Amino acid sequence: MKKGGRPEPGSSETPVVKVGVRDPLDVHVGQQLRRRRLALKIRLKKFSKDAGVSQKQIQRYESGENRTIARRLFDFARLLKVSPEYFFEGYGEPSSKSTYRRASHEEAAFAMGHASRESLALLRAFQKVESQAVRQEVLRMILDLEGM
């Protein structure tokens, strides 16, 4: 063991983890969990009951204070109607407001029951249109088609 509590490179010793330091991945997964739960308007009490986990533990997962195991993540994904990969989306990628905005809109569409592949593809394509005038025209066309 090296000074500072770190194992020698290539050794099988477990590295020392600093108490109170949150892993960025755990924080990201927790934020995704909370964001999705809130997007679906699921109260903490109901979610914890459905998941079979205490409210305090859910709060610890959502804050990144505790790491969730794969099985529990799978259960959360099922309850929140997303794939387990959802919790890792965007991790390690450069942050951008447009990515966050797109995720928020997609979550809102899903929560409103508009999560078909076509509606999400339409939403993604619409968000890529930079011209406000073109966006307005597309919206008018869609609204006109709605009456058919």
Automatic annotation (TrEMBL):
What's the superkingdom here? Bacteria
What InterPro entries is this protein classified in?
Cro/C1-type_HTH, Lambda_DNA-bd_dom_sf
What is an example of a Pfam family matching this protein?
Answer: HTH_3
Name the CDD domains for this protein: HTH_XRE
What positions does the domain HTH cro/C1-type occupy? 33-87
Question: What's the protein name?
Answer: Helix-turn-helix domain-containing protein
Give the organism, scientific name.
Answer: Reyranella aquatilis
Classification from the root reads: Bacteria, Pseudomonadati, Pseudomonadota, Alphaproteobacteria, Hyphomicrobiales
